[in-house]
Amino acid sequence: MSAVTKSPWVLHYDASSCNGCDIEVLAALTPLYDLERFGIINTGNPKHAEVFLITGSVNEPQITVLRQLYEQMLEPKVVVACGVCACTGGVFRECYNTLGGADVAIPVDVYAPGCAIRPEAIIDAVVQGLGILEEKRVLLAAGKLEPAEMPPLPSAANKTLQGRSVALSWKDAIAQAQESSKEEPSEKEAPAQEEK
Asked: Which of 18, 78, 105, 166: CA 20 to 30 A from 54?
């Protein structure tokens, strides 16, 4: 076991969760569950982190942020999707502005579902990620670590809901609104004649 896996640093990013999973991530760091007993420390700097912990579903503006953070992390690195929203989009999956889980933006190594995810599951996911991190470290030392392939850039406009794209649905809604505003105006009432 190397120093990287004995004392990995975690970068936590909230991608628009309801804060249930965020609270559980903080609970995992407190003395009750004590994630630090594995040498794991929470950091705010992606250049210091080996584990990228993501909570919440991903929308279009967050893709660039997630990719920038991921690219700033040095190899070897592991991405852990915590909570059902980070894994698949969760209950927000069918929303017009939600693209899905973290894997629509960056490659994910470990999926840890739950709503909200329990601290024990977070610890298990991070420890599982440490095994993958060690494998990547060995490959990197041997010069055989291939960079992970980034998923294609998705768009909320191209997302399909109920068999139709969001862009087409909006286009139809705008056309209907314009059509209804062009309807013939109601006939003007004739001016009332004054009584004599």
From this structure: 166
